């Protein structure tokens, strides 16, 4: 099934073609509309020569086709010219032109203060073409709408101008249904500024190189920075603010370029914080900023193919196929553009030791390295890659937490494996090795200084590992909805387990009788979970999101459907809005029948995105 997810969502009004055509004619008469040579090396501004190979405009029907494809006729040509040229910080646009290339529209203008030219700006608007089948170059369908800043230069020191202009543009392009706002980072307005504004590298490879160079610099200067700290950076804005406590010397040349070493031209010395200095001294990168057009909330999605490296025997329920199927569905449902993909990282060992015994971690590492077929108990099957994958799963939750606290995302779903909620301080069981959610809760506290974390576990099995880790902790509330322990693995999670010592009252177990379904689940949720969240007033909500309470999942005896998951998700978001600025990080636990796992997780993720009436395609299961 294919959907055109790049269609402009509802709300945008469409102008009649007549108006668009009239607009073309008026601009042609005013010498403000031309054709342009598509050769990109010609289009790019260079030096003081003619910026474009300006041509006669293409025929009207061609221009109309391009306009509809890129702007969906939501704006007239004059309307666009006017909207692109706001006056901010005393600067305006002069001589703005629209140019039609073969498949794109260009906007070119001078930036002026009064009558004096102080800079240039060139934007291009186009639509990516995506192959319909991944392995074939043809046929192609229209993909994301892109705004590309071909070039901006300002002779005056006015980063405040670019900042205001681009904030204006973001709203404008968002309204016009664009997906990406890309630019070639340019020194004339400051890379550090781009990073602060949220522009990121074009791809992970580029970012990997950036991290390597930063690591080299750290090594060269002998700075007290752990490799882990660098590895966890996954956005240019994180680099920009990295280790503000450490300043390093940088050297500026006469043109305003910086280098980390003094040479014949770079002579003027400054000291900047490490991250800022690094950005100023590295090559400009091709950055982008995604503008999310089709969901009310920005939802992060932690995913890596490396989660498939934890191998289990063919008949084992916790198989890599679970995630393969989920990711295939994400792709098929056209959700890739609306999710913010987040890369998991290998966490610092210190943050894992906050949850697990060091000797236990070593034993697990050694068992995987030795090629053992299982660890600790028979159901915990392992392969050579299991230890690293488990580290990455815990680090995936941390990446999700980083995203909600750095405002890259409103909430996050972590599509990780192996699962974690049965793992205790020094015990692996129930397919779990490291307690991902627990490690995340501890990390959120130490890294972001919050105090109260609420963990909601709706996996059909009791989250005994998580409970044991926070049993005496009054500041981490653990709530579990599960099938009654008399009938279901692991045999714990009775009502009388309420926490111990200072933690008494911060554990809430809600066992459900076998065959309980949506109605019972939702009733229990409203009756007990909602008031407990209200009373606890968390600063972060973590969900241990297993989907094995589904009626089609034969691993246990509850009979829920997607409806229960959608309901609980929606309510958790409402409560999170009230108490913790919407910060919810949801972490995959169980769910062993592929069809119901996939349809439930998709319904859950769509609800996290704030989509109304998130479809529950339970018919598929
Ligand atoms: Zn489970």
Topology of this structure?
Elements (H helix, E strand, L loop, with lengths): L16 H13 L3 E4 L3 H4 L10 E2 L4 H12 L5 H8 L7 E9 L4 E9 L2 E16 L8 E15 L4 H17 L4 E5 L6 H7 L2 E2 L2 H18 L5 H5 L4 H5 L6 E6 L5 E2 L8 E6 H8 L4 E5 L8 E4 L17 H13 L6 E4 L6 H5 L4 H13 L15 H20 L5 E4 L21 H13 L4 E5 L6 H6 L6 E8 L23 E6 L5 H19 L3 E6 L16 H19 L3 E5 L5 H15 L13
Parallel strand pairs: 1-3, 6-7, 13-14, 13-15, 15-20, 16-17, 16-19, 17-18, 19-20
Antiparallel strand pairs: 1-2, 3-4, 4-5, 5-6, 7-12, 8-12, 9-10, 9-11
Helix pairs in contact: 11-19, 14-15, 17-18, 18-19
Bound molecules: zinc ion (ZN).
Please supply descriptive tags for the structure shown above:
single chain; 621 residues; alpha/beta; 9-stranded mixed beta sheet; 8-stranded parallel beta sheet; 19 helices; 35% helix; globular; disordered C terminus; binds zinc ion
Overall description:
The protein is α/β, with parallel strands linked by helices. Helix content is 35%, strand content 20%. Strands 2-1-3-4-5-6-7-12-8 form a 9-stranded mixed beta sheet. The protein has an 8-stranded parallel beta sheet with strand order 14-13-15-20-19-16-17-18, with helices on both faces. It has a 3-stranded antiparallel beta sheet with strand order 10-9-11. Helix 11 (320-332) packs across helix 19 and helix 17 (518-536) packs parallel to helix 18. The longest helix is centred in the middle third of the chain and has 20 residues, at 386-405. Zinc ion is lined by residues 459-461, 546, 548, 589-590.
